TrEMBL record, chains A, B, C:
Protein name, entry field: Aspartate carbamoyltransferase
Role this protein plays: Catalyzes the condensation of carbamoyl phosphate and aspartate to form carbamoyl aspartate and inorganic phosphate, the committed step in the de novo pyrimidine nucleotide biosynthesis pathway.
Catalytic activity: carbamoyl phosphate + L-aspartate = N-carbamoyl-L-aspartate + phosphate + H(+)
Source organism: Kushneria sinocarnis
UniProt family annotation: Belongs to the aspartate/ornithine carbamoyltransferase superfamily. ATCase family.
GO cellular component, one term: cytosol
Aspartate/ornithine carbamoyltransferase Asp/Orn-binding domain mapped to chain residues: 156-314
NCBIfam families: asp_carb_tr, PRK00856.1, PRK11891.1
EC number: 2.1.3.2
Pathway: Pyrimidine metabolism; UMP biosynthesis via de novo pathway; (S)-dihydroorotate from bicarbonate: step 2/3
GO MF entries: amino acid binding; aspartate carbamoyltransferase activity
């Protein structure tokens, strides 16, 4: 039992393994085959000082599925903070109302500051350019689950990370979590100016992983097990880059043609979502919709069991999950999309 | 068990009868005499891309009374959709978080598009000028319940529909549902330019109903069983109409004087609400408040059992309701308003 | 069982005693040692027509801890009220959806108007300059609980009320509640122009209490048992006052130096919160953080059992609390802050 989850750096590989063991136990509940009441009477303060409907709903649903109640707050500030209330006062007041807090805030470090004075578990739901540990955990959980489904081992696996590797905080946190594992092979593909920060590359390399960098997807790759894509925002480009990458969509676009050229059928394609589907958005292509290699929806589905595991762990009920499960009375019909294959079978 | 409720056109008379049988079973719960836990562990995504506090709260309360948890979202867009996420991606992500979705959206057809890729039940909570099927169902349910209370038969009944019959979507959906029944007599009263669309009149007439149109309420009517009113928004009037209907409030105003002149004591007066009570608003008159013929609050009350029935039906627990009911521990006191007569007696 | 809680003037001392007896029974639940399901199946409409995150969350958490479900609404108006719906219609519609209503509204008297037509319990969550009875009750409850903890009697106690005593509605309601008790000694300290209204002083004095007024905190005081502070908003000052109180922060600032000079170790310092912690804000000083005399967080914590008691009382389940309690399965760790002393021990 740990008081807070603020950063992936707080987690040892043992802690991650424990969390994933709990998450796997949560699957029957996340898949609506079982229900539990293990957090009955508990109240979550789901505090979103910055809008993020998806993340807010994922935490909300996860806490609800454990039997707890959720109190949401959205909007740029607390009304009381607009009146000059300190984060210290706000957090201490909230600690008297609720039993756990998810906090998303635009300012890096604010979640840590918020959690300092209180002992009610606080989960960092994203603090600007800082951390978003539950996203990194569900990404890693997805890789682990997909490898198990495909009968593959993570040891020595080849991961391709592409897109905006400089400003994408999810890919940084994922790198840190991956670095805890036995040696992997990681290929980084980003346009100049958007590369992975050097100190992070050095850290991961120093832990025995083999890292290679490329400037384009239009090159030869060794067979790839995981393609992790993040959107390149053109606004981030300098004029010089705009000129050099006149054909950006071809050189950095992950689509069906790319996959058919470089990736065996067991490759999985991930994305932290949302994906920009507007024409010319230069994001992960919609022509992969329906392709079983597209794991992005299985990935977002995994947010539920992983966030349930985080709550159960921080609130000290992880050991009670299995004995608390009962059959569900209602039933959501099986899914339609082909990408749901792993979701509907238990 | 049907996957979605998008339009009243999806419903046969048999389906409507089945829904109303379930709704009647829900009455003791809706009236706070019994409770159930039949949807325990289920999570509703109550997604309102357009504000409608009343409808959102009605769905929220209905799902809660079945024992489920509700996650609300309000606001013009999802934050992720502002980043270019497609409705396809948003809906597929939501399907992994929640067990049923109510969606209100300003664009006609968007709810159907949202539901296409997923198998989690989606209920259309209103898509702009399109459909709002749960409103039409609660309107019809109200007519049926009131007739039963008054010991009258719906066969051959005379309904007067008045107000803005052109742009009022609720009155269109109600017409479609009414048309499934044995022959009725329907009188339509609207100012020129705001008449019921011709093709809808033709459809209903082709199903054997007797339809008559009038240009004013200041005329002779055969005794009327139901008066269904919708507000005429003066902004919709052309200059010519403004001149012609200089005395609009007298010619189209449903008030106590109108009722006393044309309607027997068993007539019921309905309105989809909200009703504009500001002076000169030309809406259903407040001088009927307290008159037992005014059924508008019994009508809105009926939203709860009808929406409970929709959820139970779509989620396949309709057959479990009766055995799941238990006595309530707390008790809301009996109502004060005379119009609540039917509400408090079980 | 009473229909509504609109004003502290509705409460006799007997009613207050009864509420506090229930609140004390709620403590094990508020402190997360026990849970109850006594309001299972009940739905609260938590209607905030004016933003107040703290108050909304406190009511939300309190109702949730009793086993009920909560439907929140925030924003300046109901979408339906923008369309001209009367408060009468809105309240009657809500009464058909939910089992209890908390209403916060910027207009004085609006909550009473809202509650007039309905029998569903309505709690005034603050109506502009009007009333906020649950705040006054939790303030009084805090004084009573702190005196009990310190082994002191309220009879003859000395309370110092300071800050903006003219516009602070919480301090007015607290005065009214205090006036129901056996004779107290109350010292009022406010700058000219912000004094307690004369008729309220007269009312309290007429009930046998000894009231004294001062113009500055920089004077001699008899030992004080309770210091209740409210923020002075400089915007409320006339130019003349600005000149006269050039050194406002010294003359009206409650801080550690003031306490050490005038208050024995058993004094408690209260504040309705939020407290403005910005430099120069002239509010209760942060240099008291961690001082056991600072009761402001115990005070806000008390909002939970007091609001639970209000709900249980209005909904007629106050006699069922004790038999309904069960052990909690999860556990929030003990608190960190020294001010939490009374919170963590049962």
């Amino acid at each position: 039992m740990s008081p807070h989850l603020l950063s992936v750096d707080d987690l040892s590989l043992d802690a991650v393994e424990h969390l994933f063991t709990i998450a796997r136990r949560m699957e029957p509940i996340a898949r609506r085959r079982k229900i539990t009441r293990v957090l009955e009477g508990a109240v979550l303060g789901n505090l979103f000082f910055e809008a993020s409907t998806r993340t807010r709903m994922s935490f909300h649903a996860a806490f609800s599925r454990l039997g707890g109640s959720v109190c949401d707050t959205t909007g740029f500030t607390f009304s009381s903070m607009a009146k000059g209330e300190s984060l210290y006062d706000t957090s201490r007041v909230m600690a008297g109302y609720v039993d756990a807090i998810v906090l998303r805030h635009p300012d890096q470090g604010s979640v840590a500051e918020f959690s300092r004075a209180i002992n009610v578990p606080v989960i960092n739901g994203g603090d600007g350019p800082g951390e978003h540990p539950s996203q990194a955990l569900l990404d890693l959980y997805t890789i682990r689950q997909e490898f198990e489904r495909l009968g593959k081992s993570l040891a020595g696996a080849h991961l391709l990370l592409t897109g905006d590797l400089r400003y994408g905080r999810t890919v940084h946190s994922l790198m840190r979590l991956l670095s805890l594992h036995p040696p992997l092979r990681i290929t980084l593909v980003a346009p100049p100016g958007l590369e992975m920060p050097g100190e992070l590359v050095d850290l991961v390399a120093s832990r025995g992983h083999r890292i290679e960098s490329r400037e384009s997807l239009e090159t030869h790759f060794e067979p790839v097990d995981v393609v992790y894509t993040t959107r390149i925002q053109k606004e981030r480009f300098t004029e010089e880059m705009q000129e050099r990458f006149h054909n950006l969509s071809d050189e950095f676009r992950v689509n069906r043609a790319f996959l058919d050229r470089h990736c065996p059928p067991e490759t999985i394609v991930m994305h932290p979502l949302p994906r920009d589907s507007r024409p010319g958005a230069n994001d992960l292509d919609v022509d992969l919709n329906g392709d079983p290699r597209l794991a992005i929806f299985r990935q977002t589905d995994n947010g539920i069991p992983v966030r349930m595991a985080i709550f159960a762990w921080l609130m000290g009920v992880d050991h009670l999950i299995e004995q608390s499960m009962r059959d569900v009375g209602w039933q959501v019909p099986e899914r339609l999309s082909p990408d749901d294959a792993s979701f509907v079978t238990l």
